Amino acid sequence: MYVAGIPINILIPLIVALCVIGSYAINNSMFDVWVMLFFGLVGFLMRKQGFHPAPVVLALILEPMAEMGLRQSLVISKGAILPYLLGRPICVILVILITASVVSTIILERRFLERVVVEEQPSGMAERHPQGPGRR
To answer: CA–CA distance from 113 to each of 39, 55, 104, 107 (Å)?
Structure first.
């Protein structure tokens, strides 16, 4: 396999070497290299278990900005964050959209799982035993 015309067996060691050099160069510390290797292993294990590491990386990058925004909101609202946020129309619209997206995702996932379970059953199973298997 080739990426940009470079064989993958050359590209991977080059990327690993540059990552090690870069993590060491930040603070001239081997501790940073070990942290990089540890989180590389965590990312590898996440991929093996079916989790995508990209949302975790995105959350780690955006977390300081979100925390600063929350702190500013708490200072402006003098500690009463819900009345402050729900008193603004744009915030109410965003809360409704976030809630709708979470609820719709849950509903669609349940419908998908129900379809998969129904398709996996042998045909005629439901007609012969409408009350479930083992009950007559």
So the answer is: 33, 24, 14, 10
